[in-house]
Amino acid sequence: MLLGMSDIVELDPEDKKIITLARSARARNGVPEGAAVRDETGRTYVAGTVALESLRLSALQTAVAMAVASGAKSLEAAAVVSEAGEPAEADLAAVRDLGGAGTPVLLAGPDGVLKVAAEAR
After folding, report:
1. Terminus of the chain with fewer CB atoms < 10 Å: N or C?
2. Which domain holds residue 103?
3. Contacts of 100 (CB under 8 A, 6+ apart)
């Protein structure tokens, strides 16, 4: 479910933090996307796009994989910084698989400004 900007009053400081972390991963690594997820204990996992000949993962898929590999049992929220207009279906599915339906997915532009808030479905 995509939420319009009028549905968003104010971002939680923890959500602002994961957008900032995702933005910095994108810039630092020079990749098309940066992502960050926050697990059920408040730990964050930050990643960029993986584009190897034998392995291709979006930044958000990579961040979710890092959370799973580190023992996370669930997600509270996810953020992606990208030029895209909305989160990719595969990204929403990855967040849903770990966080469950309804987990917030925030999409911000490279400037860090929130463009879309969605829910994993």
Report:
1. N
2. 2-119
3. 74, 75, 120
